[in-house]
Design goal:
Chain lengths: ~280, ~290
């Protein structure tokens, strides 16, 4: 079993008299993989996230996490494996101190005290917040709050972390810090990562991208493959990175770009090669 | 309306252990009809600044002039109501403030409070809903049955129905998808020109600041860190880094071109297609 997550023909709607939010969705996520999910508002991205840890259950189809079918009986096993961080950190704090807050999830899972003490230390260290143990969470800055939220999730030692627009409320530098934190953790521990985001700078760093449109999986591939479909992406309300747009215009203006560039460096290399040939 | 801050300081909970100085001796001038972007990271004083623009806060020291209105620590509050008719604020996530039974009533709520005639409210509601690109059929619906993007447009229409001369926008695109973001910003840009508004945009997006604003103010710890036209301010890498901001991507790219290929192409608000043409000319040795 190499898939960590598998969606098999999943359909979901919130109420019987409402339209389907997800229609026949199938995909897999491998262990240690970083998958980015993008799509317009209302395309079903967040619903997918909530289905993955049993916050919602599908009406049709099946979902497997680490080989276990997600249902009401397995929810607690699933949640040990899948941690989530949401957009607004203020809605996620329960403890009066950072330390208590990080411990909360572990208490729910009934971990022994000695282990909890150790994990509080190690997960706060992982996000660079060791000096804040006795602070009140709600007095921290937005970026610091999100790091605490991530530490709380890490403490439960999940195998998958889902970031559901977890950096949307941060400024650009705050976003970068959070993503670097997560990447470092991912490199040192076995961890799959799913990010749901509109931030293209995040998307291009993922291993694979899943594009959702109107409740269906619309396109799946590496960032390079996905952004190559730039016109089609724009038609479904999504944006493409600056270099992708510029490369398209350069092609339209008569240059032959060899390989779809993903960042400045790659596009500059292309230009340099072309220039030295002239 | 011209907006002038003269040595404005604002202190939250003065003379208590929680005393916090959010603005320090802040001075600047915004010309009537300009589109200003205010940038700064969390805690830099942006929100405090914008709450001065319609008198929600009055300065602890100094004076704020908005058109003929003067707001200072000692001043009387009697004029503040008419100032609020002139200066409309679109707060962050404005859809959280919707409350009426129908979209129409929600949009008309502001003007009703200012005793605008029913006929006139109807006219303004009509105009506002067109400005935000919502179909008329929605007027009789509950605002809570709409999608997130539509709810935000309703909330914005409510501010427009006041027919403000100054429009203050606090991160108006937060949480929207890319198309939604572009549509909302293009809408504000069109309104700004059409109604000759004075627009103040609080944003994290250097791209939006570059694209829409004609004047930039960057705050740091409640003080003015940088100020000027976008093409002068947004290219100063080191100073921007001091406040954890990046140079807009197109400008970063052009300095990459200069470093790697030795050609300098200046940015003058050209779109990507035009930029591509200039790059092609450069590569082909036409310049």
């Amino acid at each position: 079993m190499s898939h960590f997550i598998e969606f098999r023909n999943v359909s979901f709607r919130y109420r019987e008299d409402q339209p389907w939010v997800l229609v026949n969705v199938s995909f897999t996520v491998q262990a240690d993989e970083w998958l980015a999910i993008i799509g317009h508002n209302g395309s079903g991205k967040s619903t997918i996230a909530k289905l993955m840890n049993g916050l919602l259950l599908p009406q049709q189809g099946e979902i497997f996490v680490d080989g276990i079918a997600v249902n009401e009986e397995s929810i607690w096993d699933i949640r040990k494996r899948v941690g989530m961080v949401f957009q607004n950190p203020d809605n996620q704090f329960v403890g009066t101190t950072v330390r208590d807050d990080v411990a909360f999830g572990m208490e729910n899972h009934g971990l022994p005290r000695q282990l909890m003490l150790k994990r509080v230390q190690s997960s706060l260290a992982a996000v660079g917040m060791s000096d804040y143990q006795a602070h009140e969470p709600h007095r921290l800055s937005g970026g610091q709050k999100q790091r605490i939220a991530i530490a709380s999730v890490l403490a439960v030692a999940p195998q998958l972390i889902i970031l559901d627009e977890a950096t949307a409320m941060l400024d650009p530098k705050g976003r970068l810090e959070i993503m670097e934190t997560i990447r470092q953790v991912q490199e040192t521990q076995d961890l799959s990562l799913i990010t749901i985001t509109h931030d293209l700078k995040e998307v291009i760093k993922a291993d694979r991208v899943l594009v959702m449109n109107q409740g269906r999986t619309w396109l799946e591939g590496t960032p390079r493959e996905v952004f190559a479909a730039k016109d089609a992406l724009r038609d479904i309300g999504l944006d493409t990175p600056f270099v992708t747009k510029l490369a398209a215009e350069l092609t339209a203006a008569g240059l032959t770009i060899q390989r779809e560039p993903l960042n400045h460096q790659e596009l500059l290399e292309e230009l340099w090669t072309l220039h030295s040939k002239m | 309306m011209d907006i002038t801050f003269k040595d404005v300081s604002y202190i939250y909970q003065p003379n208590t252990p929680f005393e916090h100085r959010a603005l320090s001796n802040l001075s600047f001038h915004i010309r009537s009809g300009s589109f200003v972007a205010v940038i700064g990271h969390t805690g830099s004083g942006k929100s405090t600044l914008l709450q001065h623009l319609n008198g929600l806060l009055r300065p602890t020291a100094g004076e704020v002039d908005i058109g003929s209105y003067k707001i200072s620590a000692e001043g009387k509050t009697k004029d503040i109501k008419s100032l609020r008719e002139k200066a409309g604020v679109v707060f962050q996530y404005p859809e959280h403030q919707l409350f009426e039974e129908t979209v129409e009533k929600d949009i008309g709520f502001g003007p009703l409070n200012f005793h605008v005639e029913q006929e006139e409210i109807k006219r303004r509601t009509q105009e506002a809903i067109e400005a935000v690109n919502l179909p008329e059929e929605l007027l009789q619906r509950s605002p809570f049955d709409l999608s997130g993007g539509q709810m935000r447009r309703v909330a914005i229409a409510g501010v427009l129905a006041m027919e403000p001369e100054v429009l203050v926008l606090d991160e108006p695109t937060a949480g929207l998808d890319p198309r939604g973001q572009r549509e909302i910003m293009d809408m504000f840009s069109a309104l700004h020109k059409e109604k000759k508004l004075t627009t103040v945009l609080v944003t994290h997006s250097m791209e939006d600041a570059l694209r829409y604003a004609d004047h930039i103010i960057i705050l740091k710890d409640g003080r003015k860190h940088m100020e000027g036209p976008p093409l002068e301010v947004l290219v100063r890498k080191e100073e921007l880094e001091q406040v954890q901001l990046d140079v807009p991507e197109v400008i970063q790219f052009l300095s990459g071109v200069e470093e790697k290929l030795g050609y300098s192409i200046s940015y003058h608000n050209q779109d990507i297609a035009q930029l591509a043409k200039e790059l092609v000319a450069m590569v082909k040795g036409g310049r």
